[in-house]
Specification:
10 strands; Rossmann fold; 11 helices; alpha/beta; binds S-adenosylmethionine
Length: 282
């Protein structure tokens, strides 16, 4: 098998990303700095090292280099409006614990912080509607994006993408060097951790809402179905799921039904689907 095919196989097995033929240029340009840094002669030597399984750090660095971390604030708008107007409304009222929301491929943090800002706007509009609060668990496979996400510090170019002047004013503090940091009360609601979507979700506990946006597009049909099956198991009814705009549920899972709300779409667990991840019901 040629080096490129061996590399594609390694990448899909490690993180689910399917490259397909014709992405050699992408691979070369993404890996060039790493090859230089590691003193490796080329893809062949890299693949050999990866296949020997001796260096976890190298494997992590390669996956990190190959992930696409494109993201922005309030991406596509309507999922966050739907969250505020429909989903949190349905999950409001007395309950045993907080509403638990998972941002499942959170990249540099714009998605979970947008969720936290939407929750804040909800709380201000209808105080007491979510008496037990909201907990946001944000995960990604890439340690480098998680580092920035945890700090919650953004450059001007990042701040310009999707953030209204009002939200920028309300939810950030100016660091005085051209960067801004997400305000502490917005950050406090979010916990970040490393998680590969191909691995178990049991440690996350029971969830009410999942944002799984703009990541399934990179995976095979088989991995998409498997991930959606396990997301359904992690959700407790009524259980809501947001996918990216170009990621229809189509033939991947029959555990969800589509709920159309004005401009947007959210998926909801079908009766009898999902549940049962651990005995404490969390
Ligand atoms: C294009 S970004 C999407 C970010 C955000 N969800 C959004 O819609 O703006 C895709 C993210 O998925 C992450 N990712 C790719 N494969 C993954 C895997 N197997 N497990 C967890 N995260 C993964 C990447 O590191 C990247 O940050």
């Amino acid at each position: 098998m040629v080096d490129y095919e061996r590399f594609c196989r390694f990448l899909e097995q490690s993180c689910g990303i399917v490259l397909g033929p014709g992405k050699m240029y992408l691979v070369s340009s993404r890996l060039a700095p790493l090859l230089r840094e590691q003193g490796l002669s080329g893809l062949g030597e890299l693949v050999q090292r990866l296949e020997s399984g001796r260096s976890r750090a190298l494997r992590v660095a390669v996956v990190d280099a190959m992930t696409t971390n494109e993201t922005l604030w309030f991406r596509d708008g309507h999922p966050f409006e739907l969250l505020k107007e429909e989903v949190l409304e349905r999950l409001s009222g007395p309950r045993a614990g907080p509403v638990r929301i998972w941002s499942a491929a959170c990249s540099t943090g714009q998605e979970p912080y947008s969720i936290s800002m939407a929750v804040q706007e909800c709380n201000e509009k209808s105080p007491g509607r979510l008496p037990a609060g909201v907990e946001i668990i944000a995960t990604d496979i890439s340690p480098s994006v998680l580092k920035q996400a945890r700090e919650g510090i953004y450059e001007e170019l990042e701040l310009r993408r999707g953030l209204s002047p009002e939200r920028r004013q309300r939810f950030f503090r100016d660091l005085g060097d051209g960067r801004m940091q997400v305000r502490e009360d917005i950050r406090r609601r979010v916990t970040f951790r490393e998680l590969n979507l191909l691995q178990s979700y049991v440690g996350l506990g029971r969830l009410d809402v999942v944002f799984l946006r703009n990541v399934l597009i990179y995976f095979s049909h088989e991995n998409k179905s498997d991930i959606l099956r396990r997301v359904a198991q992690a959700l407790r009814p009524p259980g809501y799921l947001f996918l990216g705009g170009s990621e229809p549920m189509a033939s991947y899972s029959d555990a969800f039904e589509m709920v159309r709300c004005r401009r947007g779409v959210v998926y909801r667990l079908k009766e009898g689907a999902g549940g049962g991840i651990n005995a404490r019901g969390r």
